[in-house]
Write a structure and sequence with these properties.
Blueprint: E1 13-17, H1 23-35, E2 42-46, H2 52-56, E3 59-62, H3 71-82, E4 84-89, H4 95-100, H5 102-107, E5 111-112, H6 117-124, H7 126-135, E6 143-145, H8 146-151, E7 157-161, E8 171-173, H9 176-186, E9 190-194, E10 199-207, E11 215-225, E12 228-234, H10 238-249, E13 256-264, E14 271-276, H11 283-288, H12 293-301, E15 318-320
Parallel strand pairs: 1-2, 1-4, 2-3, 4-5
Antiparallel strand pairs: 6-9, 7-8, 7-9, 10-11, 10-13, 11-12, 12-15, 13-14
Length: 345
């Protein structure tokens, strides 16, 4: 099965890496596959079977932690053994590794929804992100390295890891004492930004292989838990949609789903500060609002026109996420993460 051309007989097996809790996205892909008359299996990888998506996929597969020497080889072996035609990474963890090896996967008949290494690094390194946003004419938040900040500190400020994820290591700081305490906990690979209060938005963007942006859905983040949106509402906002188009068109070589984050101070314009070249945790809201992101991915795999429309989503759709439980029998309870000491996140 060739990954870069039309899907043979409309059959496609998809692998989602680092799947974690992303059950709603798996279900959205199942629906899109049914709508397009695509057969195939949805597989996921994780480092433990104690993962909701692991239990809800057609098959869950254990993989070594991202960053280990065997990670890519293990994924290539999984793709060969299970006839995987498409890989969709779901966290920031393995984006750079997959980007660096995408040609190797393509040679094995498997495409990855990702971009080239230099563009992925641009999104992952927050200082490069800030420079990119300035270059394409979008307002950003003043961003300084720790060394620059030390020369002329200011408070309050916002601190985050240079290459962070899931809001780990982020905080609003009000004094030098708080700064030093934060650094002692999270290390010195940090950047500092102006603290910009106001409403916060995530913008879901679809970028086609030929660099067009047919879909942009802004959603206002109302409540966030552990770095992931808990309550949000879609907004039909011309400024944010135009910014999403501009941002997507300038992300060279990326295809598929991207999301960007911005904050808008009261009465002001949006200031952008984050780009994630993957499905965001709140993507099910954009999908429920009519932006069928999984379908667009599959349409490109079928080499047919993407059916997205820039204004074809429902505004003011409110998402109120809640916890559901997945129940499964544990063969070896003592091997579960948190068995000896609970995981707190």
């Amino acid at each position: 099965m060739g990954a870069l051309g039309k899907i043979a007989s409309r059959k496609l097996n998809i692998l989602f890496t680092c799947a974690g809790r992303r059950v709603a996205l798996l279900e959205a892909f199942r629906r899109a596959m049914g709508d397009l008359d695509i057969t195939g299996r949805l597989l996921v990888t994780d480092i433990t079977e104690a993962s909701a998506a692991f239990q809800c996929a057609d098959e869950g597969l254990l993989a070594p932690p991202v960053g280990t020497a065997t990670y890519i080889d293990e994924l290539l072996a999984i793709c060969a053994a299970h006839g995987i035609g498409l890989i969709i990474p779901l966290t920031d963890l393995d984006l750079r590794s997959l980007a660096r090896h995408r040609e190797q996967f393509a040679a094995a008949g498997c495409e990855i929804m990702i971009g080239p290494p230099e563009t992925i690094l641009l999104a992952r390194d927050k200082i490069l992100t800030s420079k990119f946003l300035c270059r394409i004419g979008l307002r950003t938040i003043r961003t300084l390295s720790l060394e620059q900040f030390r020369l002329k500190p200011f408070f309050p400020c916002f601190i985050k890891p240079i290459r962070g994820s899931a809001s780990i290591g982020t905080s609003v700081l009000h004094s030098e004492v708080e700064l030093n305490a934060h650094l002692s906990t999270f290390g010195n690979l940090m950047l500092l930004q102006d603290y910009v209060p106001g409403s916060e938005y995530t913008i879901d963007i679809y970028r086609t292989r030929d660099g067009k942006v047919p879909c942009v859905v802004p959603r206002q983040r109302l409540s966030i838990r552990a770095g992931e949106v808990e309550k949000a509402i879609t907004v039909n906002d011309a400024e944010l949609i135009e910014a999403g188009v501009r941002l997507g068109e300038n992300l060279d070589g990326v295809w598929g789903v991207v999301n960007a984050q911005c904050r808008r101070p009261p009465g002001g314009k949006a200031h952008f500060f984050e780009i994630n070249p993957r499905f965001g945790g709140g993507a099910p809201l954009a999908i429920a609002a009519g932006a069928n992101l999984p379908r667009y991915v599959l349409e490109e795999m079928l080499s047919i026109p993407v059916s997205a429309g820039l204004d074809e989503f429902t505004p003011d759709l409110l998402m109120l996420r809640y916890d559901e439980a997945v129940f499964t029998h544990a063969e070896n309870p003592s091997s579960l993460p948190g068995y000896d000491t609970p995981n707190n996140r």
